[in-house]
Design a protein that fits this description.
It contains two helices and six strands, in the order ααββββββ. The chain has two domains: 109 residues; 76 residues, Rod shape-determining protein MreC, domain 1 (Thrombin, subunit H, Beta Barrel). It has a six-stranded antiparallel barrel. Helix content is 65%, strand content 14%.
């Protein structure tokens, strides 16, 4: 009887030791998973802080460029006003020239009616004077035309600078919108290892763009864009990036892995 009790005691001790060993391994695995989860959360927080700083920098740049745009617009307005004034002066000069030409034509007609033998010396002197004045007006008109051409060239230069500023603003706006990308996984093909996301060409995505898939504050994995359509894109699930025990699912949030620098 004592021998039986001894054997039973030994069996109980062995079973207890096995259970204790298994529990210790499970506890170690749980601690490892918790540590990995905490590290993932910290990485996600750092990424979000970096994205926020990038957005703030872009907003500051947009304000600076907008101020430059306002200055250039004022310059353009002043040049246009000056051009309008110059156009008015040219019109006045041309009107005066037309009046002189009309007066000359009338005097020439009157000369034809003079009686034979009449001395037209005084009238000839007046005509010569009018011709001289006409040439002067023509010269002034040419000068004004050249001034108008110069002002138009200045306006064209200012317009080009204005267009360049608008182009820069548009490029920075597109980069800002791309850096602010927040889309969702709408379908997952686990057999072929790819996902469909609800972001297309208008968001600035291109082939090989790297994206991070998150769920709440947790990173689930990474995907790489393979093709971009108008409204949706297809991205391959990057091997070895999916967190252990996690599966990318429809509804998961997708953000850029690397921000575009202006």
């Amino acid at each position: 009887m004592t021998k039986v009790l001894f054997i039973l005691s030994a069996v109980v001790i062995i079973v207890a030791g096995v259970f204790a060993f298994q529990n210790g391994q499970e506890f170690t695995e749980v601690r490892k998973r918790v540590h990995a989860l905490n590290a993932s959360i910290q990485t996600e927080k750092k990424s979000e802080l970096t994205a926020i700083r990038g957005v703030n920098d872009v907003n500051s740049s947009i304000k600076t460029v907008q101020a430059d745009l306002d200055v250039e617009a004022e310059k353009l307005k002043a040049q246009r006003n000056k051009l309008a004034q110059t156009d008015g002066e040219v019109a006045t000069t041309e009107e005066a020239l037309a009046a002189k030409e009309k007066k000359k034509a009338e005097q020439d007609k009157e000369l034809e009616l003079l009686p034979k033998g009449m001395n037209p010396d005084n009238m000839a002197e007046s005509i010569q004077k009018m011709k001289k004045e006409m040439l002067e007006f023509q010269g002034q008109a040419e000068i004004k035309k050249k001034e108008v051409a110069a002002e138009e060239e200045k306006v064209a230069g200012i317009q080009k600078r204005l267009d360049d500023v608008n182009h820069k603003i548009e490029e920075r706006r597109k980069n800002f919108e791309r850096n602010s990308l927040t889309s969702r996984v709408i379908a997952v093909n686990y057999d072929w290892g790819f996902v469909i996301i609800d972001a297309g060409k208008s968001t600035g995505l291109t082939q090989d763009t790297k994206l991070i898939v998150t769920r709440g504050a947790q990173t689930v994995g990474k995907v790489s864009v393979m093709s971009v359509e108008n409204k949706n894109s297809m991205a391959a699930i990057v091997p070895d990036t999916v967190v252990n025990g996690q599966v990318i699912m429809p509804g998961d949030r997708v953000i850029l892995e690397n921000l575009v620098q202006n």
